[in-house]
Write a structure and sequence with these properties.
Elements lengths: L17 H10 L18 E4 L5 E4 L6 E5 L6 E2 L9 H7 L1 E2 L5 E9 L3 E8 L15 E8 L4 H4 L2 H9 L2 E3 L32 E5 L6 E4 L4 E6 L2 E10 L2 E6 L4 E8 L2 E3 L5 E5 L2 H4 L8 H9 L4 H9 L9 H9 L4 H9 L10 H14 L3 E5 L5 E8 L4 E7 L6 E7 L1 E3 L2 E8 L2 E9 L5 E6 L9 E5 L6
Parallel strand pairs: 3-8
Antiparallel strand pairs: 1-6, 1-9, 2-5, 2-8, 3-4, 6-7, 7-8, 10-11, 10-17, 11-12, 12-13, 13-14, 14-15, 15-16, 16-17, 18-19, 18-26, 19-20, 20-21, 22-23, 23-24, 24-25, 25-26
Length: 464
């Protein structure tokens, strides 16, 4: 297991320390290669693979297979590979780089939050290669760090982190340019299984539980992966589940197993029963039950007492609260609904046992938050529940604040992330709670810059 560098104070919007990038580039010499993997000129550093799990594909596909390494984790191939054309052929041709295998460094990029290393099997420079003249394999590995870490990091620590995966083979002699074959490796046929697919259903990544795939009965799907949401349609052929991803106009395939799915990177996704199958809906107090009590003329005190003493499954999205208000529900009852403890959707399951501490932490986010200082994003409303949070933003405008609308939220551990489109520009937001239980908002722009951290105080009582 490779552990990434420890988190230091975040310096938003700053570039990585020049000495970090300079020392990386001075120690790791890049090898120039052509489109077919042919080495151009004198080769650079020969690297030796020191960790497993890095997936590569033949260079003939014209793209690198993307992998990531986060703090405290192992190398994980990205679930989505939207930049790879002929995905099925590439998937069938992929292979892991082996520990001890020799590689060329073909590119490197350094940003405030990651170091991306591009590598290619070096063929004739590797005595252990089965056939040095085979088409080279290529992969990209992103070392992902906490925001701000690389701005002040000790270059020695960063070099050690990279070196735990890619060592420099100082014994390797310089190799001359090579002319590899451009023919992709023969596809490896997938095992043929005949497994039924349950619908509707939710699958959870065994390696990253925050990553979830929701399959619906109408053959639509919603995927939460790495803090992003992707939607589209799916189809099944035998044991293959094919996702047609609308957002990226690409496809990806998973294998249906007896107890879940296996994705294109070999990671397992476990089946989790739908909330409706795990909890009897008639035992839960819901929005329509409150409306019935209001229509029946019950007073607020009685309705609030009923909410306090019941298992609840309220929809507290903005639209749902507006509907409750228009149905005659009073402000006091609305506050009780927003403050209610929502029943755990997975009672008695190992998923609940593992997530219980996080569910309690997530509950503290819900409610209305006002910016301590005017300007920027002036108000945040977090609604929904721990499984399906929603984030509503308002920006500072004249003569009145601008309503940015609502977006789905996703949990990254104890932090809440979301993304909004503004003037066709995607902006990523990360919300956290500080030691004083105030909400902190950070945003990340496509140009790599971060906005100034904004602080918010709670405006109304929320779930406890």
């Amino acid at each position: 297991m490779v552990i990434l560098g420890a988190s230091l104070s975040s310096l938003q919007g700053q570039a990585p320390s020049p000495s970090v990038e300079q020392q990386l580039r001075s120690q790791y010499q890049i090898t120039r290669v052509g489109t077919n993997g042919t080495v151009v000129g004198q080769p650079g550093s020969v690297l030796e693979m020191h960790d497993d799990g890095l997936i590569a594909i033949p260079v003939s596909f014209g793209a690198y297979w993307y992998n990531a390494l986060k703090k405290g984790g192992r190398i994980k191939p990205n679930f989505l590979q939207p930049h790879v054309s002929h995905f099925k052929d590439a998937y069938n041709s992929k292979r892991p780089f082996q520990i001890g295998e020799k590689l060329y460094l073909t590119n490197m990029s350094v940003t405030p939050v990651e170091i991306a290393v591009y590598v290619q099997s070096c063929g004739t420079c590797d005595p252990a290669a089965v056939d040095p003249n085979d088409s080279p394999y290529v992969a990209r590995l992103a070392f992902q760090f906490d925001k701000g870490y690389l701005t002040t990091a000790d270059p020695k620590e960063v070099l050690e982190t990279v070196g735990r995966v890619f060592g420099i083979d100082t014994s390797a002699p310089k190799q001359k340019s090579q002319q590899p074959s451009t023919t992709p490796a023969a596809p490896v046929p997938a095992p043929v299984l005949a497994m039924p697919l349950k619908l509707p259903s939710t699958y959870v990544s065994a390696q990253t539980p925050a990553d979830q795939l929701q399959l619906n009965a109408d053959n639509s799907f919603s995927l939460q992966e790495a803090g992003q949401t992707y939607r589209g349609t799916f189809a099944t052929t035998g044991n293959t589940l094919e996702l047609n991803i609308r957002d990226t106009n690409t496809k990806t395939a998973l294998t249906i197993q007896s107890n879940g799915l296996t994705d294109s990177s070999g990671q397992a996704w476990a089946l989790r029963e739908q909330m409706a199958q795990a909890v009897a809906a008639e035992t839960l107090l819901q929005n329509q039950d409150v409306i019935k009590m209001v229509k029946a003329g019950l007073d607020d005190a009685l309705i609030i007492a009923k909410i306090s003493g019941s298992k609840c499954q309220f929809d507290t999205s903005t639209d749902a609260l507006i509907q409750l208000k228009s149905s005659g529900v009073s402000a006091a009852v609305l506050k009780a609904i927003v403050s209610a403890i929502v029943v755990d959707p997975f009672p008695g399951t190992s998923v609940h046992a593992e997530r219980a501490p996080l569910v309690a932490t997530h509950a503290a986010y819900f409610g209305v938050w006002n910016n301590v200082q005017r300007g920027g994003y002036v108000k945040v409303i977090i609604s929904g529940n721990s499984e399906k949070p929603r984030v509503h933003l308002w920006g500072s405008c004249l003569p009145r604040d601008c309503d940015w609308g609502e977006a789905d939220g996703h949990w990254d551990g104890s932090a809440l992330t979301t993304a909004f489109q503004r003037d066709n520009v995607p902006i990523e937001f990360r919300l956290t709670l500080d030691g004083s239980s105030n909400l902190q908002l950070n945003c990340h722009l496509p140009n790599g810059k971060d906005c100034v951290t904004m602080s918010y105080t709670r405006a109304i009582l929320t779930r406890q």
